[in-house]
C-alpha cells in the first residue's frame, strides 16, 4: 500500500519546477494526478513521464488568473475522477526585479492576478468540492517572501503575504468540514523562477546564498517532502501552518 493510493491530487503550475517534482512524487506514491499549467508542452510531458512510471494522470490547461479556466479545471477533475482529495496551489510568477517606484500598473496587476487572485480562485473552487465531500487537504505555495521583507519585488512580496493570509483564513473557516489548509514557504529554490532572476543579475547568486545559513539553495525535493508530509495522515492535526523551508533563514 502506497501513501496516496486512491487519492486524487490536483497541482497547478506543474509543467515544470517544483510543481513537476511534486506531481511525479505523488504519482510514485499511488495518487492519480491532475497536472495543470499554461505550458501545454511541459504539462503533457509530465503526464507522459508519470504514465511511463505506471501512474495515472491527465493534463488540463488552465491560467489561474482566469476564473473560468479555474472552474473548468475543477470541472474536468471531477468529471474524470469524481472527487478531489488534495490540491497544491503552486502556479506563480516572480515578476520584475526593480524598485517599487519603477513598477508599472501592468507589472503589479500581472503578479497579483496570478500569485494572489489565482490562489483565491483555486481555493474557492477546491473548497466547494471538498466541503461537499467533508474532507480534503490543500497546500498553498507561498514563499519566504510571504513571511519577511525582500527589496525590489513589491508585488511578489505582497502577493506571497496574501497567500499566507488566505491560508490561515480558510484553514479556520473550513476545519469544521474536515479540510486542512496549509502553506509551504520556500527559500530560493533551484527552479526556473530563480533561474530567471539570476539571468537578470548573475551577481545576485552569491548574495542570495549568503543569506541562507545552510549556504545552499533549496532543491525541489526539499519542498516536495514538506508538501507530502502536510498531505499525509501523520499531519492530520495540522492546519493553518505556513511552514518555512529555508535552510535556517527565518531563524
Mind explaining what this structure looks like?
The chain is α/β, with parallel strands linked by helices and 251 residues long. The protein has a single domain (8-191, 219-236), classed as 3-Layer(aba) Sandwich (Rossmann fold). It contains 8 helices and 7 strands, in the order E-H-E-H-E-H-E-H-E-H-E-H-H-H-E. Helix 3 (67-81) packs parallel to helix 4. The protein starts with 7 loop residues before the first strand and ends in a 6-residue tail after the last strand. The model has no long low-confidence stretch (mean pLDDT 95).
Low-confidence stretches: none
- Whole-angstrom Rg: 17 Å
Beta-strand content estimate: 15-25%
| Total count of domains | 1
CATH names the topology as: Rossmann fold
Summarize the structure.
The chain is of the alpha/beta class and 251 residues long.
Task: Give the helix/strand layout.
Blueprint lengths: L7 E5 L4 H12 L3 E6 L2 H13 L3 E6 L5 H15 L4 E4 L15 H29 L2 E6 L12 H21 L4 E8 L5 H9 L3 H7 L9 H12 L10 E4 L6
Descriptive key words:
globular, 8 helices, alpha/beta, 251 residues, seven-stranded parallel β-sheet, 7 strands, Rossmann fold
Amino acid at each position: 500500500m502506497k501513501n496516496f493510493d486512491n487519492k486524487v491530487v490536483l497541482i497547478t503550475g506543474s509543467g515544470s519546477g517544483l510543481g513537476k517534482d511534486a506531481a511525479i512524487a505523488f504519482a510514485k506514491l499511488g495518487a492519480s494526478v491532475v497536472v495543470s499549467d499554461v505550458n501545454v508542452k511541459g504539462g503533457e510531458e509530465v503526464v507522459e513521464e508519470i504514465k511511463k512510471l505506471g501512474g495515472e494522470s491527465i493534463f488540463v490547461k488552465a491560467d489561474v488568473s482566469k476564473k473560468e479556466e479555474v472552474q473548468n479545471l475543477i470541472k474536468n477533475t471531477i468529471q474524470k475522477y469524481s472527487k478531489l482529495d488534495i490540491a497544491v496551489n503552486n502556479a506563480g510568477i516572480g515578476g520584475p526585479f526593480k524598485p517599487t517606484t519603477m513598477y508599472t500598473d501592468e507589472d503589479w496587476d500581472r503578479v497579483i492576478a496570478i500569485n494572489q487572485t489565482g490562489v483565491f480562485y483555486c481555493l474557492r473552487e477546491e473548497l466547494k468540492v471538498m466541503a461537499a465531500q467533508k474532507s480534503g487537504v490543500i497546500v498553498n505555495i507561498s514563499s519566504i517572501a510571504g513571511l519577511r521583507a525582500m527589496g525590489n519585488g513589491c508585488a511578489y512580496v505582497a502577493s506571497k503575504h496574501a497567500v499566507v493570509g488566505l491560508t490561515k483564513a480558510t484553514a479556520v473557516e473550513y476545519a469544521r468540514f474536515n479540510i486542512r489548509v496549509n502553506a509551504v514557504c520556500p527559500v530560493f529554490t533551484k527552479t526556473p523562477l530563480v533561474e530567471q532572476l539570476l539571468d537578470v543579475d548573475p551577481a545576485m547568486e552569491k548574495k542570495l546564498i549568503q543569506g541562507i545559513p545552510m549556504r545552499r539553495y533549496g532543491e525541489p525535493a526539499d519542498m516536495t517532502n514538506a508538501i507530502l508530509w502536510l498531505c499525509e495522515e501523520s499531519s492530520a492535526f495540522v492546519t493553518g501552518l505556513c511552514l518555512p523551508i529555508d535552510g535556517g533563514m527565518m531563524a
